[in-house]
Amino acid sequence: MSEERTLLIVDDNEIFRERLARAFRDRRFEVRVAEGHAAAIELASDESPEWAIVDMKMPGKSGLEVVRDLKGIDPLTKIVVLTGYGSIATAIDAVRLGAINYLQKPADADDIIAAFERGEQPPMSGADHDYQAPSLARAEWEHIQRVLADCGGNISEAARRLDIHRRTLQRKLDKYPPRE
């Protein structure tokens, strides 16, 4: 599948971006990375990638603007959007702008490659009807973990963003993660 495909990774989180780049290089991809809109557009203007992975939420211009502008440079670029805060509205916007798929973080290289492969197939082909949605408790726990990570581990700030009392958040964090 990966005969030296060119890949652009656009994410403001340096640790995630470099970890993902390393995983794709190990799979024989030619990888370039950008931390935001301006760098991504500059790299794509020099040499348009076959595939692009774009984070939705970044400082400055959003991932949706990156998708739009990458497609403006080369309509053949296949784009998968990653987000820690997925919603149906942003998924629809991303697809309308030209993304072939939309994934929730955390996603690893195998998940992303599968998303590219699914995105290149006709709609509803090979649809997985045995999908088990995570429990509500699991979804809540994952959301809390993402918000806490965004706050750099600051429980007071995370509680403010989640609009819950700090002690309530601490009690939720003391529990083990719920099973899928």
Automatic annotation (TrEMBL):
Keywords: Phosphoprotein, Two-component regulatory system. GO terms for molecular function: sequence-specific DNA binding. CDD domains: REC_RegA-like. Gene3D superfamilies: 3.40.50.2300, Homeodomain-like. The modification 4-aspartylphosphate is found at residue 55. SMART domains: REC (SM00448). Transmembrane segments: none annotated. Residues 6-120 form the Response regulatory domain. GO terms for biological process: phosphorelay signal transduction system. It comes from the Bacteria. Signal peptide: none annotated. This is Two-component system response regulator. It comes from Lujinxingia litoralis.
